[in-house]
Amino acid sequence: MFTDFWLDEIWSYDLARRARSAADIFFSPDLKHDNNHHLNTLWLYVLGDQNHWMVYRVPALVAGLLAVVTACAIGRHRSRVEGVFAGLGVAVSFMMVVYSTEARGYALVLLFALLAFNALRQYLDTPSVGAAGWFSLWIMLGLASQTSILHFYLGAALWSGYRLRGRWRDLVRLHAVAAVWGVLWAAFVLFGSRIGGGPPWTWSSIGDQSLAWTFGYPLAVAPAWLAAGAAAALVVWDARELWREGSDEGLFFVGAIFGPPLLVAALAPPWLFPRYFLVSLLFLLLVAARSLARLWRRPVWGKPAAAVILLLFVAGNLRHIVPFSRHGRGLASQAIRAMASSAPSGEIYVTGLPVDMWSSMPIAFYEHALGLGNRLHYVLRADFQKPGASADVAWLIVQRQTDDAAPEEAVAAAAARFMLQHAYPQYGPSGMQWLLYRREP
């Protein structure tokens, strides 16, 4: 909770500050952006300037804790052991920890997806207006949190479509409000939204990061195709076991876990991040918890085997959580303090690579948040390249989202040479590594 605010959180904060009213957050053309997670942006708008950015993360923390409780309740529907395993899985999984301490809409959408699943199960068992109403409410709030609630809806549509086949009235009553709301939301709130972009990606890297950070094994240890194949086999096996037990609930998990990757592959977006699959990963954790509970109930060797798997899961995720708690989503505040303290008085000129906004926006935020004044001036790269414009630039910031390669000791730019002063790391699926270079005399 106390790690640095990073670029995307600051971006959301900046969008909230640009809103002149709460309605702007939903309808202003200037705020139509994929980093505008509307409920979260509304919270930032209502709070205004705060002495510490930790306050902006409170809704994510609360949603994360409630998601643990809700996962327990969902698992407990079948057995107490499954409830404990489901809650522990959500509480300990590194991916869930990261997004339950980040001032964005992901923790909220995870909570609303779990609540919507609970309402869906109640409705399919006993159709009623009340259960349909709760289902629609959680879908609407989920959509206002983050559009990946649609990944949940893929599973909901598959399961309800099968269970309510031939019962069109019950099917329409369940989906009518959510479907109409979704169409209106897309037309009036989402239409015209811009995408922030990101670094290049491959399915291999996305698969490796998503599953490793969710289940706690080290990155680049298991081939992505092998880990994804094992996860897919577990989902299919779990659905088969549920079917043999007389339940068609496995259809939901098949739709919610397999549907999003297939949809993304069909759309082929130019940018992709592991967080786009958070809803699928959440329900994959519930599948794993149910499978572990089955193992626990096996005679003689079941409990010891399940205990070992659980211990490995906890230890593996702690291996990710510990460096994350130390480095967080980057140490931008430390880099900015270092530049500010290099010249106790006078103006300081800075430029950055590879994207201007990656550096300029955090500098503006931390100058204000840390009370450093307005002495740090960011020089756009295009201006920095102009003849004579680089003479005053004392610092160069290089940012990247991976720590794989050692940083260069020196960087040449615009006839100037900059020497590495400090590398400020980050850890996990969010954040930026800051490499701070100082101009060589």
Question: How would you sum up this structure, described in words?
Answer:
With 441 residues, the protein is of the alpha/beta class. The chain has 18 helices and six strands. The chain has helices spanning 7-18, 22-27, 38-47, 58-76, 80-92, 94-99, 106-125, 129-145, 149-163, 168-190, 203-215, 224-244, 250-267, 278-296, 302-327, 332-341, 356-369, 381-384; strands spanning 348-353, 376-378, 393-400, 410-413, 416-424, 433-439. A six-stranded mixed sheet has the order 2-1-3-6-5-4, with helices on one face. A hairpin with an 8-residue loop joins β5 and β6. The radius of gyration is 24 Å and the shape is globular. The two termini are 40 Å apart.
Work out the radius of gyration.
24 Å
- What percentage of residues falls in helices of 4 or more residues? 55-70%
What is the N-to-C succession of helices and strands? HHHHHHHHHHHHHHHHEHEHEEEE
> Any idea what the shape is?
globular
Termini Cα gap: 40 Å
Briefly say what this structure is:
The protein has 441 residues and is of the alpha/beta class. The chain has helices spanning 7-18, 22-27, 38-47, 58-76, 80-92, 94-99, 106-125, 129-145, 149-163, 168-190, 203-215, 224-244, 250-267, 278-296, 302-327, 332-341, 356-369, 381-384; strands at 348-353, 376-378, 393-400, 410-413, 416-424, 433-439.
How is the topology of this model organized?
Layout: H1 7-18, H2 22-27, H3 38-47, H4 58-76, H5 80-92, H6 94-99, H7 106-125, H8 129-145, H9 149-163, H10 168-190, H11 203-215, H12 224-244, H13 250-267, H14 278-296, H15 302-327, H16 332-341, E1 348-353, H17 356-369, E2 376-378, H18 381-384, E3 393-400, E4 410-413, E5 416-424, E6 433-439
Parallel strand pairs: 1-2, 1-3
Antiparallel strand pairs: 3-6, 4-5, 5-6
Helix pairs in contact: 1-3, 1-17, 4-5, 4-7, 5-14, 7-8, 7-9, 8-10, 9-13, 11-12, 12-13, 12-14, 13-14, 14-15
